[in-house]
Records
---
Amino acid sequence: MQGTLGIIVGAVVTLIIFSYLLGDNVLYRWALALLVGSAIGYALGVAVDYVREWIVMSLLEQDLAVSIVYAIPLLLGILLLLKGFSPNRFLGRMGIVGNLALAYLVGVGAAVAIAGALMGTLIPLVIATGQLLDGPGLAAVAQRLVAAVGTILTLLYFAHRPRTVGSDLEPRSWISRSVRALGGAFLMFGLGTAFAGAITSGLTAMVIRLSLIAELLRPLIGQ
Amino acid sequence: MFKNFLPTLMAVAAGFLVLLGYLVPIGFLPTLRQVLVRWATILAAFALLLAYANVLRVHIGRLFQKRAPYRVSSAILIAASFAILVLVVLEGPNHTLVQTWLQTVLIPGQSALLALTAVTLALAGTRLLRTSRNLYSVLFLLGALLTLLAAVPVAYPPIVHLVMQFVDAVATGGIRGLLLGVVLGILMTGLRIILGIDRPHSGG
């Protein structure tokens, strides 16, 4: 019973969202508000749950040094919350101290991003591009060569963007213009395939939703 | 002091220690990195709280405005977020009610929105040649069309397979170049922050 009710509710939400295809309407906006509200509430609930666990662990800790390790982020968090107050009030004026917490978050975020970009993307991509060139068969080597040349030309596309001198464009050599044109061609073709990938994912989601609705309607129409 | 000097020092020190923990995994550095990253996740939770307060401020303000459009939407958003928040905080994220809500409302709703994106993207694609008629637009649509055709489960002749493999190679080149560009951009931005050249935390 609960399963059927769940499917009905899901189907109704789906149909309300699909009603946008007929034009922007009140029901669609309400459904959107419901989804956004639910997502915000869930994300914040999980975050609060995590912080609560951290506080409990800090209270249970007997060792003073470890307690301090637990207390530092909580203190920084409270400093961060000060930034939410209006600057006209006392707590708001203290908000400048919250810059410390924000700076910590930005510093760690930047370091994690650099490490992730280096170890997760840059090095594996360079290795994969290098490996493209060795393999059996002329056709396979040609394909890999095309991919490697495409990668280099696409990177050069960004390096050869036109620069302005005053209000005019800086004159560029024909080599620079050609490299940029070829790189742009590879880039646009690649973006086209990514665009098609996004459409395919959306269509897959649509097929799943519509088939669930069809399952629901099957007993009603007697098939 | 709190405006510029100390925050920059904090960002540079925290960034360097975490980066060292990743790149030089010897001695106490990896453990220190783990502790520092966990602190950052706790701080991110506080930042989320601050963001929620801002969402509430905007939408509660809208509720009390006369003739404000989308008042009901704001009321639904506040009510839904508050209800789920209370439920998750009191019962935990794995409680049956929370999971039922996710399975029956949130997941179907979000996949329906994703499905809607497919239609919107397809429409935008058909309008592309009307708005900008150049070689790049043609190449973009050609890439999209060929990829969509390749996804159709039809027994194509071998020559088409060969062409498709070259199409794949060209697309791989383009996307890989783009990804490398993005990564280099991330590296430069991150390094500027860690070296104290950019200070987004102090508004500069």
Note: The mean pLDDT of chain A is 85.
---
Amino acid sequence: MTLRYSQDHEYVRLEGAVGTIGISRYAQEQLGDVVFVELPQVGASVTRGDEVAVVESVKAASEIYAPVSGTIVEVNDKLADEPGLINTDPVAAGWIFKIEVADTGEFESLMDEAAYADHTA
Amino acid sequence: MTMNATGRPTAPTSAPAPSSPADAALLPAEALLFEIGDRDHSGVDLPDLEVGDERLAGLRRKTPLDLPGLTEPEAMRHYVRLSRRNYSIDSGMYPLGSCTMKHNPRLNEKMARLPGFADVHPLQPVATVQGALGVIEELAHWLMELTNTSAVAMSPKAGAHGELCGMMAIRAAHAANGQSHRDVVLVPESAHGTNPATAAFLGYKVRSIDANANGTVDVAAVKAAIDDNVAAIMLTNPNTCGLFEPEIIEIAEAIHEAGAYFYCDGANFNAIMGVVRPGDLGIDAMHINLHKTFSTPHGGGGPGAGPVVLSQALAPFAPVPFVRRSGDGLELVEHPDATSLGRLTAFHGQMGMYVRALTYMLSHGKDGLAQAARDAVLNANYIKAGLDDLFTAPFDGQPVMHEVLFDDSFLKGTGVSTLDFAKAMIDEGFHPMTMYFPLVVHGAMLIEPTESESRQTLDAFIATMRELAEDAVAGNAERFTAAPIRAPLARLDETRAARQPRLIWRHEKTEAS
Amino acid sequence: MRYLPHSPADRAEMLAAIGVGSVDELFSAVPASVLSTFSPDLPDHQPEFAVEAHMRALAGRNHAAGDGPFFVGAGAYRHHVPATVDHLIQRSEWLTAYTPYQPEVSQGTLQMLFEFQTQVAHLTGMEVANASMYDGSTATAEAVLMARRITRRDKVVLSGGLHPQYRDTVVTYLSGEEGLTCLSPSPEGQGDIVDHIDEGTAAIVVQTPDFYGHLRDVPALARAAHEKGALLIVVVTEIVSLGLIEAPGALGADIVVAEGQSIGNPLTFGGPYVGLLACREKFVRQMPGRLCGETVDAQGRRGFVLTLSTREQHIRREKATSNICTNSGLCALAFSIHLSLLGETGLTRLARLNHARACALADALAAVPGVEVLNESFFNEMTIRLPRAAAQIVDALAARGILAGVPVSRLQPGEPDVDRLIVLAATELTTDADIAALVEALKGELA
């Protein structure tokens, strides 16, 4: 399963029409220990670039933007008790929300691993 | 996501050796009030009356108060022991940039405790409080004279409350002039967090302005950001990089030409009091932190006081209450007219702080205030001169005002962060400087000595800072990353505090014990 | 000048070290047209004794509450503050410390704030409390904003029993916003606030004891609010009342705000005071202001830090829950010390004593011909109706050295039916002789 990345350090993993979204390994390192995640409402429809969630470390609060448009179909409730999952396992157990993607073309336009590596270099 | 990270570790990375117990006898740990007091102890002697229920509407308290009591000797010891775990300006230098930690004269405290000030109710008949109104009038006169402005709103309770007041006056002025469509406030990147927070609180969109390579704001950048929707600019002067904005008069003119107002954050007024009048620069509103500039104590986080001086254009929109002359006496206007922005707090503001600030002003006089500003600037430049060759200044080559800004590039590759450096200062007996602010500089270290520090103290501070910098560069990172080891506690786990908030004490045994 | 350590020689040597000839050169960025070009109409520096004489003269022109019989309340109350409190808060390490951003060298302030938060939570019957606000009125405005954030609704209804200056503060904070309803003054304790609650209501704001002294039926109000998904904000201006009256948290309040002045803090003509804000734990991330939390240090020892600060302006900037940047630290300390000295036993006794003095006052006033006491219930404050305008009578009594309370018309000008009303308070400091003097003087004025 390939990951694609936004300029704003969110990743999307697309399975069928559903994209799983979180923040990149690089982003969590920059942010430091995550202490709280404000999750979006399931059922909300979002447009690419909308602020949909907030990830807080002790010293910073970072908005998470929707990297693709669509409808929020699931959120990672585990983060309420274990926000540190974003630090320990950002691209798997530390996912934040899932979107039913309206237009997979938006996904295709995101950066692949190599391009993102250049972006953060 | 927004990358707002400042690179600060927030949980201790290693557990250093136990901190030095050498002064344990003088800095004892102290149990919580709830662990030493109980419901049977009390430090007051009051009669044990029974009262009936007939006038309590069936609402007599049944829930236990669960408040531990202490007898007087127990209370004395608890709070004295706790106090010894605090740093204070009386015990050492507080080089906190932007905070103006100056000496707090005790005459101020003595005057504030005179029964004629401390034991006076805000709603007594006005004829019985002419002296209190006199304090307000006299302090207002000082503030207007020092700033060359037309009015002053005295009631704001703190600097941020003053910002709210000033920006509300600007909003009211625009509304009165049919300019309510103006919905943008210009704020430089280097601003205090309260500036954008205040603008957003009032429904304004914040438009950020970049600083130039010298750390100041160009009038050209302001002009480029101006359009018909701009309501105001919020600018700090001297700015948070410790620099006087050289184009401030031109910026004010450009703002006024565009039909907008100039809010000046007065947090750094200490650098220029008695030397430059903000009204001469074209400001329309500016709050003055009495707890910074005019020596009222910080008290471990307040109370502050934030009177706002206003230009003629904004004066009609000032909040209530205010004092005005009426025949031989003074009267208190407590109800807004059609233009006033309203009321920002119950009663009349921070009287206790007014008395202290006025006492300080009278002690210094206009000559002493100007000398204090000049000494504050002298001290900051003396520190800059003492550290310049070892520390890296992002905006070098110009004198600073009351504070000097360094970044962390001199620490690059040492494994020592600004935070580590600051914690090592604690071990040397100094409170850390302001860190990671302003945001325009990486790993910012902002040092404000104030005029209160003697040359001996400044020399000791410079020597300590130099020794630390040399040690960091020499590769002794552990001294920094393990610091502090001579404080009552080592570094605290802020991650744990935020992930599992424990905000009040509960009866069960605490996890930590 | 006594506050400035440098001698002229020090200054000269420092300038040499900097490499400039004069301090003026350090001000080179300042346009010459505005630098030291003015001469303020202000005096030069003075010796300490001269300043003291000046300030004493100003203080001497005030009638201090302790100078005679005193019954003024209405949001600020004259209570005894133990000498220990004032001694302790003047210790250097409390008075002259900065905000505890460096926890390793601020454990005194931080532990005190943790204790303070706990005391406030217990007193109000709530789960959490913050490290204090400016005062009760601004805390009320912040609580209203908080309720709107929590419920994502706009409408807020302020009870007619809310302190008029608290009401005016909320009105100012919400100017430019839709949805605020202020009910007419209710000096008889009447209220129809439940009729104003609907599905769009974020919160109702009710003071108890209310501005006129009446105890409000908080449980019924809580039920009515919660039925529609609205929050109940309870305001307490006389915090000593909670030593005798049920905790708002136990009666269904969602947010409790209070003025803490009565415990530990002198009247000081209205400020600085200390605002209390407590709520249910689930709302903690929507709270304004500082919070102190427990944690451990690198060696596992218990310690305290400011926490959840991502809500605050220095991090969230334009997205902060409030622009508030300070608390009322020293006043919170005074509150906490005084409350520790009182403890459960002392506060209970103090509250009963206040109520007993107020009962004596109410009974004495009710016996004065022409005076009507409006309250069936009260804690230590009540409203009386006179046969004619109250403001002149209060002024006349003040001229006789008796501060008889607050004429309601001072705070509610232009409201019908209130110009004959006075709000009066009694505390533990109110003596039988004070009450007798008031009664006699009132009889004289009304005769």
Note: The CA atoms of residues 214 and 376 of chain C lie 7 Å apart.
